[in-house]
Specification:
- This protein is mainly α.
- It has 3 helices and 2 strands.
């Protein structure tokens, strides 16, 4: 095994990957994609570099 042959850790969750895959394969529309993406965000399943992305709309409504 040479340098750089190791597989990197996933930066996104499996749920987000599945959602993106369904959209890329034209199994859902963009509107459905956005709706499901927001739901995953509310559940804390959208991550970037291991950090949970907060739902901006719901946090603004709470203030």
């Amino acid at each position: 095994m040479g340098k750089g042959d190791k597989r990197r850790l996933d930066q996104t969750t499996k749920e987000e990957q599945n959602l993106r895959d369904r959209y890329a394969r034209h199994k859902i529309t963009f509107i459905q994609y956005e709706k499901e993406y927001r739901e995953l965000m509310k559940q804390g399943l959208i991550k970037r570099s291991g950090k949970v992305i907060k739902d901006v709309d719901s946090s603004a409504a709470n203030n």
